[in-house]
Design goal:
79% helix, 73 residues, 0% strand, 3 helices
Amino acid sequence: MNLSNWPVIRQLREFGGDDAIVDALIVVGLALVIAGALVGRHPAVVGAATLYVVAVAVYPVYRALRRRTQNRP
């Protein structure tokens, strides 16, 4: 499933660049917004949103470490 063709992904590409993980984070974030709107403050939605926030916060560190290890001779 190629997410890069979705209009929302194309509009948000300038935020994250060409990275499939960023595409997945965008789609999961949109799904959480929709689930929160439909279900409300259900514990499952709150827990998933918490994990999502942690993933978004940790991803830039992961990407920086990955780039650093790829640039080593």
